[in-house]
C-alpha cells in the first residue's frame, strides 16, 4: 500500500527548491481557523433565535459569522503565525458569543461535536441563515434541496494556510526561471493540495471525532447511515459530498479550473463554490481568476471538531497540522489524479472505520510520521524549541498502534463506559454527553468576564474596547500590544487607538495641556472655571517671596509632578514663614516647579467626559480595611485582596492593597502598624490618595450628581480642547446645585481617563465606556 | 514749601485701609510700559518709510504701534508684575523693530531721546500715522493744526499701573461699607492720581532727560523755546500741553468727568482724549463710563526716555517708579485742586530748570524720599530682597544734593564735554551724540539674532515662533515657560502651542504612533512605504528564534527606545548565531522590546513636513573635527566649540561637542584619544549619531532633493495622520528619482520635529519654519 514516492522519501526529505534549512521560513507561514458549531437550547434542540444583532452586520463581520443555518456559528480567526495566536482569537469569540447567547438567548449552548446530536423531527424546519444577500440565501436553499439540510449542519474546522510569500519570492529564481512568482506560487499550492489529498487520511485517523450522529440524520445522496458509530460520520460517505459524477482533476490548475467550469456548465454544480473538496484554492472570487491572479492561500476542510476542547481544536493539534502541511511540501510530488483519488478513498475508509479499529495503513502511516519527524527535528533545532515539535510527532506516533488513544477512540471509550453505567446504547448517550461537555465549555467561556479571553496582555479598558469591536465586526490589528496600541477598521475606515481612548478625536496640544497641572489650571481659570487658588514657582526664592501674598488659611505645597505623594505638605492651619519655607524645600527636592494650592474641602469626584457629554461619574475612596476585632491589619488586607476582582497592573478591575513603605507610613499616622488589631468596625486607611491603582475603590455616582457639576466638567473639557477627559472636581455637596463659586473646584483634568473604575465600580452601576468610545470613532458601525 | 500733609507723614506712613503689611500685595500690582520713539535715517532726519507692513495690521497689533507720526514707534508691553518682565518685552520688540528697519529700511535707527534732534525745514512734511481708521487719522490732523506737528513728535514713556484687584476686593469691607468695589476702586485711583500730580516733580528731577531739542522746534501755544537747554523740554511749557483755559478738577471723579465734558462741549477740546495730563484714568472708552463701570488702571505719562538705556528706561528706574506710586498711596490725601495745580507748577519749574541747577524743593524732596524709604524697607523685609529696594531709594537720595548725578545732569555733562572738545555749543552736538547712542543701541538690539531677546528661557524654535507672532501682532500668553507652552490669540482666535509645533493641528494618536518606532514602521509598511525590513521582539527567546528568518546580510539590533546609542549592535557582515544572541542580550538589557532592522546604506536626510508640504530638508552630520597636524583632538573640539552659535540646551542653534564617555568610546573605535594629534585634514568623528544635540551639524538640502522623496515624506506624514512631521529617509542618491524600491527607506518619523536645524543650518539656506507654523495656525494673520 505504501506509495513508491513515499518510500523514496523515507531517508531524506527533499523538495525541488525548498530545503530543510528553509523550514523556519516555512514555519513562518500564516494560518487561519474557521470553526463552525451549532447553537442549541439547553435540551439539545437547535436554537430558534436568529444570529444575534449584537454581532453586527454579517456583510462586515470578520470574526463571528453564520454558515448554512442561522443557528450555525462560524467563528473565524484572522491570519496568524502561531497556534497560540489562533487560540487567542477563538477564545475571545467563543467568550463573546457565549456571553450573548447566555444573556440574550435564554442560556443557549454551543454544541461541541461536528455531527449534530439532535435534529428536529421535521428537518425542513431548520432555518437557513438569514443573509442580507439574496443570492447567498437562495444558494443555501438550493443546497438544502440537493443535499438535504442535515448534511449542511455538519460542522468542522477549516484550516487556512499561506506559504510565507517572502520565501517564495526569495526562491522563485531557483524554480523554473521562466516562471513568474504567480506561476510558481500556483504550482506550489497545486502540488501541496495533491500531496495533502493523498495523505490526509492520517490526520483523519488522529483527529477524526464524530463517532455518533443524531438518529434521524440522513443525506439525499446516501440516505441514512446504517452504522451506529464510526470514526467520523462527517468525513464518511454520509458527510457533505458532491455527486460522484462530479470529476475534478488536480493534475494542473488549468485542468482543475476547466473541470469545475464544465461541472457548472452541465448543471452538476449550481455554482463553482458548490464544489466541496477537502482542499480548496483561495484568493479569487472565480476559479478562473486563480490562473490569472494567483492562488493566495489554501484551505483544508477535513477537520472534525475536537469536542474535548472548548474551541474545537487544541493548540498542539493546530501545530501538528501545520507540521503535516509542511511535510507535504517536502514529500515527492503526487502527480496523477488516480493517486489523489486513492487518497480520497483511503480517507473515507479511515473515517468509516470504527474508532477502535486498527489502522489498516500502518506502514504508510509510519513512513509519513517518519517524514514528519525529520521536519520536526529540523524545526526544533532551528527554532530552539527543545524537542517540542518532535514530541508532537512521537505522541501521535504511538497512536498509530493504539487507536484508543486517538480523539475518536477516547470519545467512544468514555461514551460507551458512561452509557454502560446507565444501561443504554452508547449512541443514545451521545446527546447527553455532548450537552454535558457544552456546559463545561460554557463555564470556561464565561470565567473572568471582565477580561477578553486571549487578550489579557492588554489593559482592562483596551480589552473592553476590543470586546465591542469584535462583536460589532470592527477589524482589529495589533500595532503594538506592549503599548495597548491598536488599529480598528470598519468598512474601509481606520482609526488608531491607544489605551482605549487616546485617539484621533483629541489633539496633540490638549494632551500636553492636561499633562501639565500648571497649564490645565491656567487655561481653566482664564475661562472662568473655578480652580484651587494658588501659584506655581520655579525657584525657592520666588516661592518664599510669595508668603505674604497667600490669601487662604489652608493650603498644600507640592511638586508639580507628584509621584506617590512624595514632597507634599498640607497646612490645615496657616503656617509660620519658617514652616512654609521648609515645605518649599521638601517640594523642590522632588521637582523644579512647585505648586501652592488652596485646600478645598468636599468630596472628590471623577467625571468621565466624552464628546461634550458626561458618560460616568465615580467617587473614589482610598485603600481601606475594616476591623473585625481579632484580625491584624495585615490579615485584613489579605482578606480584601482575596477578592477575585483584585489583581495587579490594570489587568484586573481592582488592584491589591499593598503593604509597602507608603502604606506603613499611612498606618503610622493613625498610630497603627501592620500587626495592629483594629476594633470591630474601625476603618483603617492604607493610603492618603484614593487612586484605584493603589488599592482604592470606586463608587458610581453618575445618577446622583447635580447637573450643574456635569456642566462644569463638560465646559472644562471644552476649554481644554479635549474629547476624552477625566475631570476631577471637589464638591461641597454634589446633590445640590451651585449657589456660590466656593461650592466646587476643578482640581485636575486627565487625558486618557481611566475606564476601569466606571466599567467595574466597586459599588453601583457599570458604564459601557469601551462601547461609547468606539461609537464615536465609528458612528457607522452597529454598536447599539 | 513742604506741605502740611506731607509733614504729618514723615514719621509713619498711613492709609485709611491699606497697611504697610499689605505692601507685598500692592507690589504684586501690574505695570505696563508704552515707549514712544522716532525712526530716523542715518543722518538723523525722520524716516520716510511708512510703518512697516512686517508689523502686521495696526488694528490688531498689541506690541508694535505708531503714535502721532508714521515714523513714531510705540512699543508696548502687556501688563506684567516686574520690571524684569517689562524689560523682556521691550528688548524683544526693539530687536524685532531694529531688525526690520535695518534690513528693509536702509539701516534706519531708533532715536533715543524724548526730544527730536532734527526736524525737517518744512515741519508740515512730517507724515501723520497712516491709520486705517479715518477718525483716528483726522484726529491726528486736528492735533497737528492746533498744537503743531513738532509737539506731537515728543516721545516718552507711559507707565500704566493697576492696583492688585484681589487686594482691593479683600479690603473693600474695611473701606466705607456702603461703597461698592467699583466705587472704592475709583476713589483709590482718584486719590492716587491727585497725590501723584502733587509730588511727581520729584520723578522729573531724577528722571527728566530731554535737555536739548531740535533748533527749529516750536509750539503753537508757546512758540519756540528761548532756552538752549533745560532739564526736560518735553515736560516744560514747550511740551504737549492743553490750552491753559482748559481747567479740570480732580476733586472727585464726577467733577473730573463733568469738566472734561464741558471742555469738549464748549470746543476747548475736540475729543475727550485730547485732554493731555500726566495722569490718565483708564479702562473705559468714555470718561463718563468710568463712573458707571469703574477705573481699571491708571496711566502716568510724565517720563522722558532715558537715552542711556537701549529701551528708554532702566530696570531699576522701573522699580523705583513703582515704589514711588505705592508711596503715593500711603501719603495723606491731597484733596484740593489748588494743591494739584501747585504740583503742576512745581513740575514745570523742575523741568524748566537747567539740568545742573540745585533742587529748589529740597526739604519736600527729602521728606518724600524718607517716605519712600519706609516703603522700601517694609518691602525688602516682606519680599526677602536683601535691601534691594532700600538701595534704589538711597541711590536716588544722594541725587537730591547732586543734580549732576541725575540723568539730565549726566547727559549735559557728557554732551558739553564732547562739544567742548569739538569746539562747538553743546546744543549743536545733541544730534550727533544721540545718533551715536542710537548706533550703540542698534548693536545691542541686533546681537544674538538667533535669539528673541528677553525670551532666551525658551527653546530656539519657540523663540522663532514668538518673533513672528510679535511681529504679526498675535497676542502671546505664557502658559508654562518651563515647558515651552504658549497661548497665541489673534482677533479672538486662540491656539495653544508647545515646543513650537505641537498644536491642535495634530492628533493625540499621531503623537503616540510617532513616539513608537515599532508602530511607526508598521503603519508606514501597511501603507506601502518602504521601511527597513526587520522585526520587533518582546522576549529574548522570540528574538533568538528569528535568527534563521533574517533575510538580509547587514543589520542592526537595538533597544526600542535607544538612549545615547546604548545597547545597539551593528552587523556589517552576517553574524554567527552566538554573536546574534549576544547582541540581543545587550539590547534587552536596555529595553523590554528589541528591534532587528536591516541596515540601509545611503545618505540620511530629515524632511520637515507640514500640512502635506515639505518645508525643509537637512542632511545631518555627526560631531566631527578636522585635524591641523599639531592640535590635539581635545584642542580641536575647543576651537569648534568657540563658535558663538554653539551652546547648550536648545538655547543656541548649534550644540557644543562633548568630551564625555561616548565621545571617548567613538575615538577609541578610531584608535584615538582626546590627546591624539590628528593629521592635517584628517576628519575625526566624536559621535556615531548625527544629532545636532550631540554636536552634529546640519546642511540644508531642500532644493537639491528629488521630488520623488519629497512625495514619500509627505505620504508618510499623511499615513501617520501627522500635520507636523520630521521624516527621516535613507536615500541612495537623493538627486535621482526612485527607480526601484531599494532606493530609499523611511527609518523614522518624528512628532515635534526640530526647527533649529532648518532655521540655522550650518551650511545652506535657512527656512522660515516658525512663520510657517503660525501661518497655518492663523491663516487670517498678516504673516506674509
UniProtKB/TrEMBL annotation, chains A, B:
<dbReference type="GO" id="GO:0005829">
    <property type="term" value="C:cytosol"/>
</dbReference>
<dbReference type="InterPro" id="IPR014746">
    <property type="entry name" value="Gln_synth/guanido_kin_cat_dom"/>
</dbReference>
<keyword id="KW-0067">ATP-binding</keyword>
<dbReference type="InterPro" id="IPR006334">
    <property type="entry name" value="Glut_cys_ligase"/>
</dbReference>
<comment type="pathway">
    <text>Sulfur metabolism; glutathione biosynthesis; glutathione from L-cysteine and L-glutamate: step 1/2.</text>
</comment>
<dbReference type="InterPro" id="IPR011761">
    <property type="entry name" value="ATP-grasp"/>
</dbReference>
<keyword id="KW-0479">Metal-binding</keyword>
<keyword id="KW-0511">Multifunctional enzyme</keyword>
<dbReference type="Pfam" id="PF04262">
    <property type="entry name" value="Glu_cys_ligase"/>
</dbReference>
<comment type="function">
    <text>Synthesizes glutathione from L-glutamate and L-cysteine via gamma-L-glutamyl-L-cysteine.</text>
</comment>
<dbReference type="GO" id="GO:0004363">
    <property type="term" value="F:glutathione synthase activity"/>
</dbReference>
<protein>
    <recommendedName>
        <fullName>Glutathione biosynthesis bifunctional protein GshAB</fullName>
        <ecNumber>6.3.2.2</ecNumber>
        <ecNumber>6.3.2.3</ecNumber>
    </recommendedName>
</protein>
<feature type="region of interest" description="Glutamate--cysteine ligase">
    <location>
        <begin position="1"/>
        <end position="351"/>
    </location>
</feature>
<dbReference type="InterPro" id="IPR006335">
    <property type="entry name" value="Glut_biosynth"/>
</dbReference>
<comment type="pathway">
    <text>Sulfur metabolism; glutathione biosynthesis; glutathione from L-cysteine and L-glutamate: step 2/2.</text>
</comment>
<dbReference type="Pfam" id="PF18419">
    <property type="entry name" value="ATP-grasp_6"/>
</dbReference>
<keyword id="KW-0547">Nucleotide-binding</keyword>
<feature type="domain" description="ATP-grasp">
    <location>
        <begin position="521"/>
        <end position="778"/>
    </location>
</feature>
<keyword id="KW-0464">Manganese</keyword>
<dbReference type="InterPro" id="IPR040657">
    <property type="entry name" value="GshAB_ATP-grasp"/>
</dbReference>
<dbReference type="GO" id="GO:0005524">
    <property type="term" value="F:ATP binding"/>
</dbReference>
<dbReference type="GO" id="GO:0046872">
    <property type="term" value="F:metal ion binding"/>
</dbReference>
<comment type="subunit">
    <text>Monomer.</text>
</comment>
<comment type="similarity">
    <text>In the N-terminal section; belongs to the glutamate--cysteine ligase type 1 family. Type 2 subfamily.</text>
</comment>
<keyword id="KW-0317">Glutathione biosynthesis</keyword>
<dbReference type="GO" id="GO:0004357">
    <property type="term" value="F:glutamate-cysteine ligase activity"/>
</dbReference>
<dbReference type="InterPro" id="IPR007370">
    <property type="entry name" value="Glu_cys_ligase"/>
</dbReference>
<keyword id="KW-0460">Magnesium</keyword>
<keyword id="KW-0436">Ligase</keyword>
